[in-house]
């Protein structure tokens, strides 16, 4: 498995290179000057020109992109135009917050989604199934900013149980994690239900029941293990997406994460910061895909066997 | 899942929880003012910031300060300088520093610190955004262009006396020195902090009433009282500032008692709610603002190159109706260039008329009997209320014969277009950085300012007069010159359409015992005088 993981990681390098190059080109095309954006209403053409020269913004792209790559290869992502701080430091400060939020939101999504989908799959068409499917549809189709405001109003303003926003301790994580987690729990529940339904009709389940196993044992030991791989893939990809920053949730709950940094960077045309944030997002998506493959292999021995043939 | 994998996952979660617990600061309460701002200030270094000065106004002091002396009135008062003299030719400003003032690191304030601060602003390696405030200092240009190793015009005469020589008389200079951008730094500390100055508590040091003790980007800042402050220890123990971008979240933070002051500028859509609330109505604080909303007209763009068309646009907008209906009448109509509360403001200036029939007549005279098609910029990221304002202006202008199409821009694209002098009609707000008419006239109608704001005033005599007024040293003659210029630009040239000045509304929470808005009505202010029960 180690060989498989290393090969996949090595193969991802051209993807990272492509993503940064594409971003560099795109930012040359869109209008907007980072110095003017820093000065906004106080922009003075003389000062803007002088600063552009000092910050090497007037250098041609063919000089700036290799400079960025060379720095990145040496672990230096440059200095944010807007923040005046090293990009790597800014991202490292924001990343743990995003990771914490992503992990807790994923945990909510999995802990709610998988059991709910399983319950719904037990007796298709009954009240419980309809309730779970109805709620999951509501979860999937509710805009995050709206559910966030509702949760804030209920738990913080009305009940006074949790803080409205900010990021100063574990209790501050509860509402944003619930907001994000419940939104994706719907997808997980629906997928788990469909996948489990397919498995429940398989011959080996009939055999397990014929052996006299309880329904609980049949589901947990046999059905779920076989139904989970597609759900795991989706869960891993959802987590990867959350790891690259959940912009709306981070904004509403004032979480100082990578998502907000990315938006700031785009609005300010802050090329170094944006390059760094996009690099992180790309790495997270690559790792998410890889994690999905590894998780499936851990659950399904047939996949491990296939890897053995390939690597 | 194997036992090994489970153990690894548990270990990762525990590490994250532990790491996060260490990194997150606990919000304190007690005699602490709790605020929320929609934006991170980026840095406490006022030389590298043009927008957010809450940190700067509380951490640093200036040679002189501008203080409110009554509603809509202010005066320049001594700050770090106990007194000063201005030479008769207006070219030399000599400041006598207060003895015994110390920076947060314990260093005494000396004239060398003032010399260093001004030179740092002009040093191209600083990458300062506000260097233009010292453009009149002798030697500043040479320093900015990298032709000199220091700024020759700033000289320490002795430990507590500093002289600043100007290249030509610049009447607003004293008022400008009271702006937050002109805060004084500690030479020894700032040199050592180098490029990190203002970015972390460890790299920030001033003489002000509070010192920065926590700063987590996009999360919060915390300032604690400076017990050795030269005016006396502030009444507050601390100020904590949280970053919360969403207006609804801001309101919930306030209602849940997590912040003490709700600033309506950050969430104008919430005004109706607070005005209607029996709980909060009595805690609304309204402060006049030395600022104005204006509609910028690009004088170089057809059909607005014809003054009759510009005049027609002025006649088409019912500013009073907008102020009453959209902003509950919380402000005053402005009919010139200067906002109420600004030095030289003329309260008797003739009001602009509203006459849509007259507007259509003027358009017909100008050769547009069927009206004119034009565009009004609306920029993503500007306040939501402004989108409604754009619709109202477009609808009102239609009655005067202007068929206005609203054109949407992203902020970066708009600023670039405006900088090039090509923006269509747009409205904006301008608040005074310093109390001098120059802050308004030069910004909008100087030869460079008028282009980068896409106003493109064609009246070259008026543009030159704006430049010349900077050097008039007699205050009465100077005010007279600005008042005449104001009428020329607004009435004769019809170069822009001033709208109104809105009051700045705050809601104070039950803990706030004393709160006063600053002289200019900004959100950023010194909280030295604020008290919490």
Structure description:
The complex is a heterodimer of chains A (311) and B (533). Chain A is an all-alpha fold. Helices cover 78% and strands 0% of the residues of chain A. Chain A has 15 helices and no strands. Chain A has helices spanning 2-11, 13-29, 34-39, 45-54, 61-73, 87-122, 127-141, 144-158, 171-200, 203-210, 215-243, 247-252, 258-267, 271-299, 301-310. The mean pLDDT of chain A is 87. Chain B is α+β, with helices and mostly antiparallel strands and 533 residues long. Chain B has 17 helices and 22 strands. A four-stranded mixed β-sheet of chain B has the order 1-10-9-8. Chain B has a four-stranded antiparallel β-sheet with strand order 4-5-7-6, covered by helices on one side. Mean pLDDT of chain B is 92; it is low at 17-27.
Q: Average pLDDT across residues of chain B?
A: 92
What percent of residues of chain B adopt helix (DSSP H or I)? 25-40%
Quickly count the helices of chain A. 15
* Spatial strand arrangement across the major sheet of chain B: 1-10-9-8
Compressed to H and E, one letter per element, the order of chain A equals HHHHHHHHHHHHHHH
Largest sheet of chain A: none
Strand fraction of chain B = 15-25%
What's the pLDDT, averaged over the residues of chain A?
A: 87
**How many strand segments of chain A?**
0
- Head-to-tail CA distance between termini of chain B: 56 Å
Gyration radius of chain B, rounded? 25 Å
Give the largest chain-chain interface (CB within 8 Å).
Answer: A-B, 63 and 62 residues
Question: Which spans of chain B have pLDDT < 50 for at least 5 consecutive residues?
Answer: 17-27
Unreliable segments of 5+ consecutive residues of chain A: none
Q: Which of globular, elongated, flat, extended, rod-shaped describes the shape of chain A?
A: flat
Summarize the structure in short:
The complex is a heterodimer of chains A (311) and B (533). Chain A has 311 residues and is an all-alpha fold.
């Amino acid at each position: 498995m180690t060989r498989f993981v290393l090969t996949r990681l090595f193969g991802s390098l051209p993807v990272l290179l492509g993503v940064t190059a594409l971003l560099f080109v795109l930012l040359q095309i869109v209008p907007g000057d980072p110095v003017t954006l820093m000065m906004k209403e106080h922009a003075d053409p003389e000062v803007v020109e002088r600063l552009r020269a000092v910050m090497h913004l007037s250098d041609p792209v063919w000089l700036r992109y290799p400079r960025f790559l060379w720095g990145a290869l040496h672990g230096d992502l440059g200095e944010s135009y807007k923040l005046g701080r090293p990009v790597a430091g800014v991202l490292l400060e924001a990343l743990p917050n995003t990771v914490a939020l992503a992990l807790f939101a994923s945990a909510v999504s999995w802990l709610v989604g998988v059991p709910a989908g399983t319950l719904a799959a037990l007796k298709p068409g009954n009240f419980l199934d309809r309730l779970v499917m109805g709620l999951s549809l509501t979860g999937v189709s509710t805009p995050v900013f709206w559910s966030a405001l509702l949760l804030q109003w209920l738990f913080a303003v009305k009940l006074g149980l949790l803080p409205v926003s900010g990021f100063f301790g574990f209790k501050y994580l509860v509402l944003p994690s619930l907001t994000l987690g419940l939104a994706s729990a719907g997808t997980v529940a629906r997928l788990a239900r469909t996948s489990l339904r397919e498995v429940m009709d398989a011959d080996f389940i009939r055999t397990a029941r014929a052996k006299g196993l309880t329904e609980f044992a049949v589901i947990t030991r046999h059905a779920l293990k076989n139904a989970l791989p597609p759900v795991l893939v989706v869960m891993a990809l959802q987590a990867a997406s959350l790891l690259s920053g959940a912009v709306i949730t981070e904004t509403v709950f004032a979480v100082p994460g990578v998502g907000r940094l990315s938006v700031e960077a785009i609005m300010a045309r802050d090329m170094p910061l944006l390059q760094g944030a996009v690099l992180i997002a790309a790495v997270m998506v690559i790792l998410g895909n890889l994690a999905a493959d590894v998780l499936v292999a851990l659950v399904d021995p047939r996949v491990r066997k296939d890897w053995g043939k390939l690597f | 899942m194997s036992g090994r994998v489970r153990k690894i996952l548990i270990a990762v979660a525990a590490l994250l929880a532990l790491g996060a617990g260490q990194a997150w600061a606990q919000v304190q309460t007690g005699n602490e003012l709790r605020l929320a701002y929609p934006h991170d200030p980026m840095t406490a270094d006022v030389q590298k910031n043009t927008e957010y000065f809450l940190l700067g106004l509380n951490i640093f002091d200036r040679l002189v300060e501008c203080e409110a002396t009554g509603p809509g009135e202010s005066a320049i008062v001594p700050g770090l300088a106990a007194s000063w003299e201005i030479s008769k030719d207006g070219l030399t400003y000599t400041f006598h520093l207060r003895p015994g003032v110390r920076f947060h690191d314990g260093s005494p304030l000396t004239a060398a610190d003032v010399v260093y601060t001004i030179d740092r602003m002009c040093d191209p390696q600083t990458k300062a955004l506000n260097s233009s405030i010292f453009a009149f200092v002798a030697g500043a240009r040479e320093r900015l262009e990298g032709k000199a190793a220091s700024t020759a015009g700033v000289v320490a005469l002795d430990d507590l006396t500093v002289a600043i020589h100007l290249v030509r008389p610049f009447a607003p200079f004293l008022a400008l020195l009271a702006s937050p951008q002109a805060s004084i730094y500690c030479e020894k500390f700032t040199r050592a902090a180098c490029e990190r100055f203002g970015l972390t508590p460890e790299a920030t040091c001033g003489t002000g009433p509070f010192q920065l003790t926590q700063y987590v980007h996009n999360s919060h800042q915390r300032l604690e009282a400076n017990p050795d402050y030269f005016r006396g220890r502030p009444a507050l123990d601390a100020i904590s500032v949280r970053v919360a971008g969403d207006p609804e979240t801001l309101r919930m933070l306030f209602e849940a008692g997590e912040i003490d002051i709700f600033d309506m500028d950050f969430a104008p859509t919430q005004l109706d709610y607070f005005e209607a609330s029996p709980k909060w109505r009595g805690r609304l604080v309204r402060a006049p603002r030395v600022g104005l909303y204006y509609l910028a007209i690009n004088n170089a763009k057809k059909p607005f190159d014809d003054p009759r068309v510009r005049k027609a646009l002025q006649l088409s907008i019912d500013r009073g109706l907008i102020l009453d209906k959209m902003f509950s009448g919380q402000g005053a109509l402005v009919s010139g260039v200067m906002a109420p509360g600004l030095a030289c403001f003329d309260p008797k200036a003739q009001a602009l008329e509203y006459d849509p029939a007259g507007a259509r007549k003027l358009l017909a005279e100008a050769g547009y009997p069927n009206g004119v098609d034009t565009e009004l910029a609306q920029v993503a990221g500007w306040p939501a209320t402004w989108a409604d304002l754009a619709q109202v202006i477009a609808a009102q202008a239609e009655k005067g014969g202007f068929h206005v199409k609203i054109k949407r821009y992203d902020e970066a694209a708009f600023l670039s277009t405006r900088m090039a002098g090509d923006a269509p009609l747009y409205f904006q707000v301008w608040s005074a950085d310093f109390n001098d008419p120059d802050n308004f006239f030069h910004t909008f109608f100087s030869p460079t300012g008028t282009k980068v704001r896409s106003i493109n005033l064609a009246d070259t005599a008026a543009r030159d007069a704006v430049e010349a007024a900077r050097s008039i040293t007699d205050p009465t003659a100077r005010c007279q010159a600005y008042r005449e210029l104001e009428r020329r630009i607004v009435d004769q040239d019809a170069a822009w359409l001033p709208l109104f000045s809105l009051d700045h509304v705050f809601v104070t929470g039950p803990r706030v015992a004393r709160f006063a808005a600053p002289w200019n009505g900004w959100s950023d202010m010194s909280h030295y005088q604020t008290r919490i029960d």
